[in-house]
Amino acid sequence: MVKDTGIGMPEDSLNNIFKPFIQLESSLSRTFEGTGLGLTLVKRYIEMHGGNISVESEMGKGSSFRIELPVNRKKIVEPVLLRLESQMVKS
């Protein structure tokens, strides 16, 4: 689990934070900058390893990200490699 004590996120925005190029604060003078790709990449890497990521957040109190990865990597690694190889062939 990764926790922070930052500004938190509104509950209605939590479903969108793993989508590419999504930024919760869209004003031109926003305090926090970024491209909106970080959590998308994290989610994809975790899923490539057969895992899952979830988030809970409370405005003004911070956020908690829960990452679950399988213990038995051998069952996961080969199917992931096969999937990646087939995607590379299609490209």
Automatic annotation (TrEMBL):
<dbReference type="Pfam" id="PF02518">
    <property type="entry name" value="HATPase_c"/>
</dbReference>
<dbReference type="GO" id="GO:0009927">
    <property type="term" value="F:histidine phosphotransfer kinase activity"/>
</dbReference>
<protein>
    <recommendedName>
        <fullName>histidine kinase</fullName>
        <ecNumber>2.7.13.3</ecNumber>
    </recommendedName>
</protein>
<dbReference type="InterPro" id="IPR003594">
    <property type="entry name" value="HATPase_dom"/>
</dbReference>
<dbReference type="GO" id="GO:0005886">
    <property type="term" value="C:plasma membrane"/>
</dbReference>
<feature type="domain" description="Histidine kinase">
    <location>
        <begin position="1"/>
        <end position="73"/>
    </location>
</feature>
<dbReference type="GO" id="GO:0000155">
    <property type="term" value="F:phosphorelay sensor kinase activity"/>
</dbReference>
<dbReference type="InterPro" id="IPR005467">
    <property type="entry name" value="His_kinase_dom"/>
</dbReference>
<keyword id="KW-0808">Transferase</keyword>
<keyword id="KW-0418">Kinase</keyword>
<dbReference type="InterPro" id="IPR036890">
    <property type="entry name" value="HATPase_C_sf"/>
</dbReference>
<dbReference type="InterPro" id="IPR004358">
    <property type="entry name" value="Sig_transdc_His_kin-like_C"/>
</dbReference>
